[in-house]
Hints:
- The chain is α/β, with parallel strands linked by helices.
- The protein has ten helices and twelve strands.
- The radius of gyration is 21 Å and the shape is globular.
Amino acid sequence: MEKNFFDISPEIRELGEKAMKKVLPYFEEIDEITEYNQLKMLRAFQNARVSESCFAASTGYGYGDRGREALDSIFAEVLDTEDALVRHNFASGTHTLTVALFGVLRPGDTMVSVTGVPYDTLQGVIGLGENSNGSLKEFGINYEQVDMLPDGGIDYEGIKCAVKPDTKMVYIQRSRGYSLRPTLLFDDIRKISNLAKSIAPDCIVMLDNCYGEFVEKSAPGNVVDLMAGSLIKNPGGGIAPTGGYIAGKRELVEACSYRLTTPGTGKEIGCTLGHSRELFMGAFNAPHVTGEAVKTAVFAAALFELLGYDVTPKYNETRGDIIQAILLGNEERLISFCQGIQAASPIDSFVTPEPWDMPGYDSKVIMAAGAFTLGASIELSADAPLREPYAVWMQGGLNFHSGRAAVLLAAEKMKNSGKDS
Ligand SMILES: *Cc1c(COP(=O)(O)O)cnc(C)c1O
């Protein structure tokens, strides 16, 4: 007899089997994408001639750090860009995006966000809130926005009106973030970029690529000018302990490097302190780990649909990121779901997440995360603001086996709570 390591009822196990049958054909597609991206990564390592000397710790200015340079060239190759800036001292994804924005925008420039309001933490960077201290706005950079259509689609007509021949930046956010709009696919990004360039040939098309890396075969480097992302999401492979990347056209990446360090020194300095090995290992594992996270999301979509909930995206929809939203309908279920995910974590499985008043949110938020790296959302995690439509956003999973167990445990915890809706 197989041993049951977790308390999951026969009823939920059976539904889990049903869900597996539904998703298996889609797992073949995910495996094909994973293999493609994994081999692309392997080839990039070889082309960069990575050897053990690349892992050596540099100190001080870090001049001539071969590992740092090799890692930049690997990221450029897998993202289909001319150049990249991959550093452990980007403190967060927001910091990385901020360096990119301040790196290329100048007073008087206009930035047009064409995918609605950007991710929460970027709003203060742009200067959308009451406190614009240190924001782009304070430095004289104008901001305009084209909202998504009511059905969550891209408002191409709106973009045509908002983008002017002298628009400096067209800003795209790929991931749904914590909204219910669909995530953009490579083709959507290409279409927006083509439209923007037809009106403003010299504009910079910039992409917030967070959560999107290695989910599709096509990398957006061929269709955007500049992109940025976080190493505690997909491209860190669950191993990078911190950091971010900027990638794109050579002269734009250089401008960003002047903002990160200084005009003149740019990419030439920045010691790696012994972190290079983790960043290389993380990058190498990233395509595979991303595939595992996508499988976990697809399985969750199938299982919770069988349980009668609205999910987005559905298990059979093409994905552009690793996020799964599940509309659970009430507070009790959200809490049980998050407690189930937490209980299946390798770290802090014994703690019980509770809703709390998180600064910057207008309702209580509950979060489940039991991760090796604090805040890493390539590791399985779930977040839910306690408000209509009572949706939970789940992402990550270092391997599908533990991811599936966590999703089953979440379903189990919910089974006996919140039955009244
Ligand atoms: C995570 C994320 C960010 C910001 O990254 P942090 O590391 O949380 O600062 C920005 N945009 C999107 C779409 C994200 O998912």
